[in-house]
Every structure is written in C-alpha cells, then in structure tokens.
Design brief:
Layout lengths: L2 H22 L17 H4 L5 E11 L3 E5 L5 E4 L9 E10 L9 E3 L1 E13 L1
Antiparallel strand pairs: 1-4, 1-6, 2-3, 2-5
C-alpha cells in the first residue's frame, strides 16, 4: 500500500474522531439559514442523549412582530421598525428530553434565525 494513502486515511480518522468527541462533549451547534427551511447540520441527523439543554440564538427582526416557535419557551417580539440601530434579538429556551432526540424545527415568522447554539446542562 502507498504511504500517501495511509497518511490520508490517518488524517480522515483523526478528523472523524475529533468530530465525534466534540459531539459527545456537547459542543454547541451553530445554525444559520432560511427560517422556512431550517439548516441541516450533523446534529440534525445524529440522535442526542436524553437530558436538559439550553438553546440560545439570535434572530434578525424584519417585521414589527416576530414569533419564534418550535421550542418549549416560544417567544413573541414586538418592536417599531427604525427604533433599533441593530434589529437583532437574542432568545434562550431550556429543553428537557426524556428520550434520545434530534434537533427540533425552530421556526421564525417575521424575522430570520441567524444563529443557534445548543449546550447540554445535564444528562438524564
């Protein structure tokens, strides 16, 4: 076998191991995308362990009324266009899962989800 192939395989295995370790340690997952079509990330596909998680994100406000749903602590934001120099709002929700779970479909009406971070707080 060629040494070049061994180096590539080792690098691939190291990268895969690093990604698996980051996922197992509960590293935050950032998501950016169109609220009508939630972004797909490896966290969307892989099952996460049961437990309590903190969901934190930012939303770009585009309409006078913005609704964030798909999480236990749904948010409604009312604001006056032109009143904020940066029309961005932050939100936080605590979610508890008793079974292995996949990323919930978080929806934003009247705005755009700019980022989302999921941090494990405790495992059940």
């Amino acid at each position: 076998m060629n040494d070049t192939h061994m180096i590539d395989r080792r690098l691939l295995l190291k990268l895969a191991g690093s990604l698996a370790a980051a996922s197992a340690l509960g590293m935050g997952v950032s998501r950016v995308g169109d609220p009508a079509q939630p972004a797909r990330t490896p966290a969307d596909v892989a099952l996460q362990p049961p437990g309590t998680y903190q969901f934190s994100g930012t939303v770009r406000l585009q309409a006078p009324r913005v609704e964030i749903s798909g999480i236990s602590n749904a948010h409604q934001i009312a604001w006056s266009p032109g009143a904020l120099s940066t029309p961005v709002a932050k939100f936080t929700s605590f979610e508890h899962f008793t079974q292995p779970w996949q990323m919930p479909a978080i929806r934003v009406e009247g705005g755009q989800l700019e980022s989302l971070q999921v941090v494990p707080l405790s495992f059940a």
